[in-house]
Amino acid sequence: MNTDVRPHTPPGTAITAGQVLGAVPDAVRRLDPRSAVRRPVMFVVWVASVLVTVLVALAPNVFGVLVTAWLWLTVFFANLAEAVAERRGRAQADAMRRSRTETVARRVSPDVEEVPPAGSGDRVPAGDLVPGDLVVVGPGEVVPGDGEILSGLASVDESAITGESTPVVREAGGDRSSVTGGTTVLSDSLLVRITAAPGQSVVDRMIRLVEGARRQPTPNEVAITVLLATLSVLLVAAVTALQPIAAYSGARQPVLVLVALAVCLLPTTVGALLPAVGIAGMNRLVRRNVLATSGRAVEAAGDVATLLLDKTGTITFGNRMATELVPVDGVGVERLAAAARLASLADPTPEGRSVVELCAREHGLSADTTSDERAAVRVPFTARTRMSGLDLPSGAVDQPVLIRKGAAAEVVQWVRDRGGHPPAGLPGIVDAVARQGGTPLVCARAEGGHAEILGVVRLADVVKPHMPARFAELRRMGVRTVMITGDNPVTAAAIAEQAGVDDHLAEATPEDKMRLIREERRGGRLVAMAGDGTNDAPALAAADVGLAMNSGTTAAKEAGNLVDLDSDPSKLIAVIGVGKQLLITRGALTTFSIANDLAKYFAILPAMFTAVHPGLGALNVMGLASANSAVLSAVVFNALVIVALIPLALHGVRYRPLGAATLLRRNLLLFGVGGLVAPFLGIWALDLAVRHLPGLG
Amino acid sequence: MNPATAGLLQIALLLVALALSYRPLGSYLARVYDSPVHNRAERVVYRICGVDPEAQQRWTGYATGVLCLFGVSAFLLYALQRAQGVLPGGQGRPAVPPDTAFTTAIGYATNTDWQSQPPEVTTGNTLLLAGLTVQNFLSAAVGVAVAVALVRGLARERTDRIGNVWVDVTRGVVRVFLPLAFLGAVVLLVGGVVMSFAGPVVVTALDGAQHRVPLAPVAAIESVKLLGSNGGGLYGANSAHPFENPSALTNLVQVYLMLLVPVALLRTFGVMVGDHRQSRPLVSVVAVVAAAVLCLVWAVESRVPRGAAQVAGAALEGRESRFGVFGSALFAVAATGTSTGAENAAHNTFGGLAVAGLLVNMVLGEIAPGGVGNGLHALLVVALLAVFLASLMVGRTPEYLGKKIGRVELSAVSVAVLTMPLLVLTGTAAALALPTTRDALAEDGPAGVTAVLYTYASAANNNGGAFGGLDVGGGYVQVTVGLVMAFGRFLPALAVLRLAGAFAEQGRSPVTAGTLPTTGPLFGALLAGVAVLVAALTFLPALALGPLAGALG
Which residues carry out catalysis (chain A) (predicted)? Predict the structure, then answer.
């Protein structure tokens, strides 16, 4: 289980030469104007490239040919970035899809209620199934589509989706009744009602998010595109207006140089990498075994202000465990341990086992049952008695030793019934255990008409060791965690404090959860939650980020906008990190791209006008060799910076869970100030090489 | 006292005065626009105009009101000018020619106060008092109203109402500009500014010739000319004229009056959104940009030429010896920074880099501190741009004061940001491409580019300050300048009102540790950086061929 907030690059995700080379044909195909027009900024560059190609074809020269070539390379590099991102995303998605389309389903008539015998039903391609169709899936067969089990129980290998090789049990009814297309039934047969139309399954929706051509831009991407369009209009206007002013000043410029200037100034860096950033963000989720069904959800994850987490299984290890033995006054802890162990031997629940283990671990008692003990009469827990234990044979046949453990009130009554008196210190111990979030089990012993209370076994929910640190990180990121639990308020408060969550909701019903989500959202806070049951579905749908467990019901998966294939609710924390990283990467590239422009003016303006206004040579702070070498260096830098930033776009800006002020300072320095300085150095260095080309010195 | 000490002393006095008025006036303005109570004078106005002061408007209604007010104002001004010959109180002045009347009408209705003719020659008392001065109050109040509507949009939640334009404009006139103009006029009067309806005085100039200098209620009008970022004086020489601005002391008072309301409005913003710390970065941007431009202009201007030029008084060419180099520099920076367009010196005689500084002060788009109202909303628009980038960099979708900046909001920001540069660049390029305008230029080369660029920058920013060297008498320049003024004023205003509407409809996200802080110095630096970068990217080529080529050539 990986709940690390840092979406660091897992091994094996480096960009390989193979990926890049493999993407080249695809990148070339995207030079097609019908494809290019989808990326507004790069389309302007595409048009500019066509224009200069025509101009240079009419009057060829070395400078013109080089500038034209690099303008085309600029467009190509942008395509390459997107193609590589898609290629990386598609690898996993393709595997999922292949398993779907090649599957043959066995459709049965809609009135079937029980699992029909193996081999029955009409054989149809999985792609032809529509929601509502009933199919039967036998051992060794692949589930043809997402659906709900109507009848049957089977072990299913879900490794095609989750990568987890241990089979899981799926059965009709309850919270484990859904199956995912592409998984394989290992034993037994299932009657499945298909719930997703072809092309609408979770996997299909996920595939759409990583394929550039079919992706819908997310709201934030649209907003950034508006910003880039604004900048483009502004800069194209500045360059267009330059020609009449230049002509008036006696320095009419060649169209080639003006086009080169315009392309350099356009926010090409971010325009080129924006689609790749979006695709790569989705890929990072896929690598964490999270499928997103909307890009909006991933963006919203960055904005999450309130995180609702179920206590059991997420914040704590699902089961209560014995953590301590507290004897009453006058009883040795060894005696209590012996009785507690005996009382729990007959208790097969995890709680019971944990008592035996505690006694073995801390008091050196045997964890195994001896033959004598096996012969004892087991008294199982019932809802009426609310206690369990063992009647141990002793010397006197009719006088067995009775050992009991259970809820305080019942055990006290049991002791009183046998003439014993509960010790005065008991209520204090019981209260103290409850106050600390534990469940007190009172342990008693009766032998020969003498009954006594020995002490208390403390059962506690144990908070997973790494969780408090995670919540502290979340707090630094501005995310408030609310723990949801069915426990009573006292227990809930104690666990909440141990775990370090910001708030908790005790004795929570699904309605309470809905109410909490509505309240938070009314206050403008974005809410993230995880859920698996059918009764979680409304809350999952209401939350801004709803992470459904793959092990959960179809209703839950339909309602959420993310599905975790590992069914680990704490993965929400990682999802928030991925969302933030996605936004930061976009912001960093946009800022870098805009900041880059200043240097290009300092390169190209003196190149254009030093001939008529020698004084403007003072602006040539980089000491570029000639007008042509300055223009070419700027164009080359502009193209190469796209290539240089492809890894950043694909891996994302390194994100650490810090407060906003710290993050801003760091990223502004890196991408704002860095963006101002880098092109001065880059263009200067390129010019040192470019000036040696014939006709450019 | 040497000039540097005098300069620093003036700065210190000015800063103390601004600091003293910042809080009380800023809070007072917030109360004015948030108050539910109408005073008697206002109720009379509402009854006469048939306005329901309790009706809250959508952004569309508010915008319609602003445009109607402009249309009616411009039409009445045009009519008044054309009818001057037959109206009483024209003091024998003839009707204003149509193209001049057109530009002047738009100029005064847009708070630009474009004057292509010396007013003492063209303007009689009726036109002055019933037309131009009325607009000096009204157009200033409209500017503040638009900014206040945006601030309300940011302050309100889940409503489509952003206030009532008639109430906001009326209050601006009655509760803000009338009382302030009265106080200002008294101070100027005490300082020696003329205030008279008597006939012209006859003076004998140094050359021995006799000049008839007309008198007017100068002090009263001078006060609102500066307070409302208007800038249209009573004399062609504007604040260089001894009747408008007799001494170094009145000069400093005039600078203060220009800065008073725009600076106080920054405080008003903080008060109205319920967090006065939000004003801090805006104030620091204004201070830093204004200080930088002032330092540049002052440094260039006080570089004393050696030799014969010094003997001939080269450093003071085009300046008034009453104010000295610093007084002229300070006034010029304040007048361009507030889009007032008043002048106490001839800007075309400033050094090349100083002119570049003044131009930059304008093309930054009224942010240091900008005209009344316009400055505040221009700063907020830049803040939204800065927030957009900065929010993403801290991993949040962009939001300012808990309001999301999505596609609709950013589109409105785009219109507000794009209008001025597009108007200035198109206007300049077209004027330089046309033979008729090229012929109207006194000088060729960089000086010609500078003159045209200055003219259109001044018009698009509703500054109104003229720059010698371009004869704007010709029909083409008159008409295009008129259009540029109108679009330069109202396209951004519409965009700002659209923004106000969009923000008002939103709820508000709460502040968490993950929220971008918009109160600290870092955000202030980012704000200034974005403003300077956008202006630099847009205008660097034009500036290079104009003032920079002139200065470096």
Answer: 310 (4-aspartylphosphate intermediate)
Q: Are residues A428 and A351 part of one domain? A: yes
**Cβ count within 10 A of residue B210:** 8
Q: What is the dihedral of CA B456, B457, B460, B462, to 10 degrees?
A: -110
Residue from A218, A230, A277 whose CB has the most chain B CBs within 10 Å, to mutate: A230
Angle at alpha carbon of residue A170, lines to A165 and A175, rounded to 5° = 120
Task: Residue B179: name the closest of B131, B227, B139 by CA.
Answer: B227
A697 compared with B528, residue with greater pLDDT: B528
- SS3 of B203-251: EECCCCCEEEECCCCHHHHHHHHHHCCCCCCCCCCHHHCCCCCCCHHHH
Tell whether A506 and A450 lie within a shared domain. Answer: no
Of residues A229, A475, A615, nearest to B549 (C-beta): A615
Reported ipTM: 0.92
A525 touches B at CB < 8 Å:
yes
Q: Find out whether B547 and B359 touch, Cβ atoms under 8 Å.
A: yes
Q: Is the pLDDT assigned to residue B308 strictly greater than 70?
A: no
Q: Is A227 on the interface with B (CB under 8 A)?
A: yes
Which residues contact residue B4 at a Cβ distance below 8 angstroms, ignoring those fewer than 6 apart? B302, B326
Instruction: Report the percentage of chain B scoring pLDDT > 90.
Output: 67
Q: Between A476, A583, A613, which is nearest B395 by CB?
A: A583
Rounded CA-CA distance A55/B33 in Å is: 59
Whether A153 and A135 map to the same domain: the answer is: yes
With contacts defined as CB-CB under 8 Å, which chain B residues touch A661? 517, 520, 522
Higher pLDDT, A23 or A116: A23
Q: Are A309 and A572 in contact (CB under 8 A)?
A: yes
The total number of structural domains in chain B stands at 1
Same domain, A167 and A114: yes
CB contacts under 8 A, A 255-314 vs B, are 265, 299-300, 302-303, 305
User: Quick check: is B439 in a domain?
Assistant: yes
Boundaries of domain holding A397? 321-460
**Domain with A396 in it: what CATH number?**
3.40.1110.10
Give the per-residue pLDDT at A353: 85
Which residues in chain A are contacts of B414 at CB distance < 8 A?
226-227, 229-230
**CATH code, domain with A171:** 2.70.150.10
**Within this chain, do residues A327 and A422 fall inside the same structural domain, yes or no?**
yes
A380 in the same domain as A344: yes
Asked if the structure places residue A333 within a domain, the reply is: yes
Residues 6+ apart with CB under 8 A from A381: A347, A349, A387, A388, A406
Chain A neighbors of B514, CB-CB under 8 A: 305, 477-479, 659-660
Q: Do A249 and B549 touch (CB under 8 A)?
A: yes
Enumerate the residues of chain B whose CB falls inside 8 A of the CB of residue A659: 513-514
User: Do A55 and A111 fall within a single domain?
Assistant: no
Which pLDDT band holds residue A5 (cuts at 50, 70, 90)? very low
B112 in any annotated domain: no
* CATH code, A470: 3.40.50.1000
A620 in reach of chain B (CB within 8 A):
no
Give how many domains chain A has, as a whole number. 4
Give B402-436 pLDDT, tens digit per residue: 999 999 999 999 999 999 999 999 999 999 998 88
Q: Are residues A421 and A527 in the same domain?
A: no
How many angstroms away from the CA of B154 is the closest CA of chain A? 15
Kindly state whether residue B116 falls inside one of the protein's structural domains: no
Asked if residue A5 belongs to a domain, the reply is no
In a domain, A443, yes or no: yes
B200 lies in a domain? no
- Could you tell me if residue A419 is left (phi over 0), alpha (psi between -120 and 50 degrees) or otherwise beta? left
pLDDT in tens, A536-567: 888 888 899 999 887 777 788 888 888 887 77
Structural domain boundaries, residue B462: 372-552
Q: Which residues of A are catalytic?
A: 310
Q: Cα–chain-centroid distance for residue A65?
A: 47
